[in-house]
Specification:
The chain is α/β, with parallel strands linked by helices. Helices cover 46% and strands 23% of the residues. Strands 3, 4, 5, 6, 9, 10 and 11 form a 7-stranded mixed β-sheet that branches. Strands 1-2 form a two-stranded antiparallel sheet. Helix 1 crosses helix 4 and helix 2 packs across helix 3.
């Protein structure tokens, strides 16, 4: 089988992203004919149809989705090659490091880690994407080649995609958030959000006869806190989400059998050894204890 050329991989990724040969051609500065020829060459070399063509444009087949994910990862390695070579000589990471994180991790864990990272590696630019921790979540962004490292829930309802390098950073405790002064917080309506609904803590929830069915499904954890602050209900939330909660929100510990979730990182085997990703992991491990300590103090208040 003939090898795929880097330019063919770039065309494959562009068509998958744009959804049409014409749009991909415009993005790459090629003719539509050149794009069509490149995709035909890719399909011939891999022995599978990668796109369904039609009036709708070009939609990746399951084989096309997989091929595009692999292509992104290969192209990312090619992109990092010059930075890795320079870093071997200087000990400093350069270029970009792409991070996918769920909202509360991006708000509280990443800032101190990235602050230290860029102080040590001033020519390294972090790129952060906020991705809901549902379905394949942040780790799926890494598996699909859209991120170099993900801050992810490692023991959630959906495990990280196979083949990734994962490690835990800390166990994050859950606590009860409720309006300050509520006489019986556990009797309030439950406010929840989709990301939390997919949590493994549902197993714990099913054992608690005091937890009602959610009456409000908010968009994210920040909306939940706003609603709780307004007296609209109570919520069961992870510690990171409770950091910086409004003063009108009280936080009550759920006791020694409170649920926790494992927060960690996921990356690919090929990127795990790069200078930028190794440096970021070191800073995440350094930042995690102080961030978690603040979470624990808040939830034990």
């Amino acid at each position: 089988m003939s090898e795929l050329a880097p330019q063919e991989l770039r065309v494959l990724v562009a068509v998958a992203r744009e959804g049409s040969f014409t749009a991909a051609a415009g993005r790459l500065g090629l003719t539509q004919s050149a794009v069509s020829h490149a995709i035909a060459s890719c399909e011939r070399k891999v022995g599978a149809v990668l796109f369904d063509r039609g009036r709708h444009g070009a939609r990746p087949t399951p084989a096309g989705e997989r091929a595009a994910a692999q292509a992104r990862r290969i192209l990312r390695l090619l992109d990092t090659l010059p930075d890795e070579a320079r870093g071997a000589a200087t000990g400093r990471a350069t270029g970009t490091v792409r991070v996918a994180a769920f909202r509360s991790a991006a708000a509280h864990l990443l800032p101190p880690a990235l602050e230290r990272l860029t102080a040590s590696h001033p020519l390294l630019t972090p790129e952060v994407r906020i991705v809901p921790d549902v379905g394949r979540g942040t780790a799926g962004e890494v598996a699909d080649g859209r991120a170099d490292l993900a801050i992810a829930t490692l023991d959630g309802a959906t495990p990280p995609p196979a083949g990734l390098v994962t490690a835990a950073l800390f166990d994050e405790p859950y606590a009860l958030a409720h309006p300050v002064g509520a006489a019986d917080p556990r009797a309030l309506p439950l406010v929840d959000w989709t990301e939390n609904c997919s949590s493994y803590t549902r197993r714990w929830w099913s054992e608690q006869d005091w937890i009602p069915r959610a009456t409000v499904d908010a968009g994210d954890d920040s909306v939940v806190l706003s609603m709780v602050a307004r007296g609209l209900g109570m919520a069961i939330m992870p510690g990171l989400a409770l950091l910086g909660a409004p003063t009108a929100v009280a936080v009550t510990d759920l006791g020694p059998r409170r649920p926790t979730r494992a927060v960690g990182y996921a990356t690919t085997p090929e990127l795990a050894g790069t200078l930028a990703v190794r440096a970021l992991i070191r800073e995440l491990r350094s930042a995690a204890p102080s961030v978690l300590d603040g979470s624990i103090r808040r939830t034990d208040a």
